[in-house]
Write a structure and sequence with these properties.
By secondary structure, the chain is α/β, with parallel strands linked by helices. Helices cover about 35% and strands about 20% of the residues. The strands form three sheets. It has a seven-stranded mixed β-sheet, covered by helices on one side. Strands 3-2-1-4-5-6 form a six-stranded parallel β-sheet, sandwiched between helices. The protein binds (2R,3S,4s,5R,6S)-2,3,4,5,6-pentahydroxycyclohexanone (ISE).
Length: about 350
């Protein structure tokens, strides 16, 4: 079978990582084209993989007959535009989260995809492919532990981007909490319907930015009334720490933590912990992009998140942002899932 020829739009961190995993690790695809604002931003990949062609205009890359599928890993404001163009060209497209900067952009992609009658859009919620989350989903699906009642989650980032970017609570929701919004709904097989925010003392770094609060607690509820308590902590400093405990009627399940070698010396024992999301979920990213490639090769649903998943995540991020602003219980107004996206 011929390899799927992929064009990459945006060769920053994640675009580079995905290109390298496709070119050196994954099966069934190759990167034939890339584009970024300046050619120099792609040069590291063009030097490493001389068969990749540079396209100045993403639109030309998408339309090119040397590209079968498109990977959108550029800055967020252009995600929806390039995804829409790929759909208009009838080409499969994988877009890193978020699919759009608002629900309207994502709804327009949904309408276009439904009108075309073919599932072309995949979205980068990679935690669905993490071994720990998949084990937890199987345990819940077995029913052995009874109904899930409350989940306690924490999403803690080192916060090393402070100084480069001005933090905001909206960005903390759309860029960080969005992962739990997708993966917990997937894990519980139960969509979210509302959010509340609990805001207490902020860390000293957060206090330097007027209006910015960190950490915050989001209490999100699903359609069947399971509560998901999520600590969003974007300046945790000590490490990149993702926790998930789910209390069920008959027991509790805890997502396994990554393990590393222990070292004993000088009267102390230590083990390194993750400091980067790229390493913490490296295998999940590998599995996710392989699943996307296989979904194209075999024309089969490989459980990669789709446009509807991105749409309902955007409704919930809006609700979380509003709940943080008002302190009020906020409903996300989740509509019925269109038949086109029902599984
Ligand atoms: C980053 O973009 C990610 O997607 C990571 O998974 C998340 O933990 C981090 O907060 C985001 O900035």
């Amino acid at each position: 079978m011929e390899k799927i020829r992929i064009g990459v739009i945006g060769t920053g961190h994640i675009g580079t990582e995905h290109t390298e995993r496709i070119m050196t690790l994954l099966q069934g695809a190759t990167v034939t084209a890339c584009s970024d604002i300046k050619k120099e931003y792609c040069q590291h990949l063009l030097d490493k993989f001389p068969t990749i062609a540079f396209f100045e205009l993403p639109e030309e890359l998408i339309a090119s007959d040397t590209v079968d599928a498109v990977l959108v890993t550029c800055s967020n404001p252009k995600h929806a535009e390039y995804t829409m163009r790929a759909v208009e060209c009838g080409k499969p497209v994988f877009c890193e989260k978020p699919l759009g900067v608002n629900r309207e952009e994502i709804s327009a992609i949904m309408d276009k995809e439904i009108a075309g009658g073919k599932h072309l859009v995949s979205v980068g919620f990679m935690r669905r492919f993490d071994k720990g989350y998949r084990e937890m989903k199987q345990l819940l699906k077995s029913g052995d532990l009874g109904e899930p009642l409350i989940a306690y989650c924490a999403h803690r980032n080192v916060g090393d981007w402070i100084g480069r970017l001005t933090p905001s609570n909206a960005q903390g929701v759309v860029g960080t909490a969005i992962h739990e919004i997708d993966v917990m709904s997937w894990l519980l097989d139960d969509p979210f319907v509302s959010a509340q925010a609990l805001i207490g003392k902020s860390n000293a770094t957060a206090q330097q930015f007027p209006g910015f609060r960190d950490p915050v607690i989001l209490n999100m509820r699903t359609k069947s009334d399971t509560m998901v308590m999520l600590e969003v902590n974007v300046i945790a400093k000590y490490g990149y720490d993702i926790n998930c405990d789910i209390v069920c009627e008959e027991g509790k399940i805890r997502m396994p933590e990554p393990t590393h070698t222990m070292v004993w010396r000088d009267g102390a024992a230590s083990t390194p912990i993750e400091v980067s999301w790229k390493n913490r979920f490296r295998e999940a990213f590998d599995a996710e992009i392989q699943a996307w490639i296989d979904s194209i090769r075999y024309d089969k649903d490989m459980d990669v998140a789709n446009t509807w998943d991105a749409y309902r995540a955007s409704l919930m991020t809006d609700a979380c942002i509003e709940a943080e602003k008002t302190g009020e219980l906020t409903y996300c107004g989740l509509p019925e899932c269109p038949d086109f996206y029902k599984k």
